[in-house]
Amino acid sequence: MDTSFPDRKTTALPKTEYFSDFLVNLDAHPDNMQVVKNINEKAVIRSIRNLLFTNKYERLFQPDIGCEINKILFEPLTPASVSALKTVIETTIQRYEPRAGLLEVIVTPYIEQNLLVVTIKFFISNSQQPVSFTVQLSRVR
User: Fold this and answer.
1) 100-132 residue pLDDT tens
2) What whole-number distance in Å separates Cα of residue 24 and Cα of residue 133?
3) What angle do CA 65, 136, 18 make, to 5 degrees?
4) Is residue 2 part of a domain?
5) Distances from the Cα of 53 to the Cαs of 37, 68, 134, 135, in angstroms?
6) 136 and 115 in contact (C-beta within 8 Å)?
7) Is the dihedral of CA 24, 132, 110, 107 positive or negative?
8) How confident is the model at residue 136 (pLDDT cuts 50, 70, 90)?
9) Which H or E run contains 38?
């Protein structure tokens, strides 16, 4: 029995397409001229990235969707601002991305470069393996 996720069923699922999203620019595949799409892990990662880089009131008819990381990026880099950023990211993912079961958010500040590196670890509801990706956040002057 898999003990890394004790509250999840451990039945192995066949590797097929469960989640799919179209790319934002709706590019066509060069061979078959079909719209290219992200599937499974890539679709959920892209969705989380879009949530993180969308401000509230930026989406029409969905003003609550988004993450307010821009406000935190312009605060001085302190342990309190790093903790606030981590909390905002966790809350946004848990609230708006039901396909991802959040495991951990790690925020690493690089004060000299004025940079924050955010590592997000989660599992997808149809997969047994955790997925992680990294996002670099910095101020644009």
Assistant:
1) 999 999 999 998 888 899 999 999 877 778 999
2) 19
3) 55
4) no
5) 20, 8, 14, 10
6) yes
7) positive
8) very high
9) strand 37-39
State the pairing for strand pair 100-110/37-39. Answer: unpaired
Average pLDDT across the chain, whole number: 80
Sequence letter at residue 19: F
- Domain assignment present for residue 1? The answer is no
Tally the domains of the chain. 1
Instruction: Please check whether residue 10 lies inside any domain of the structure.
Output: no
Determine contact, residues 92/51, Cβ cutoff 8 Å: yes
The CATH code of the domain that includes 131 is 3.10.450.40
What pLDDT is stored for residue 111 in this prediction? 86
Owning domain of residue 115 = 20-138
DSSP classification of residue 50: H
Coil, helix or strand for 88? helix
Lookup: tokens for 122: 């989660």
Contact 96, 50 (CB under 8 A): no
Q: Does residue 117 belong to any structural domain of this protein?
A: yes
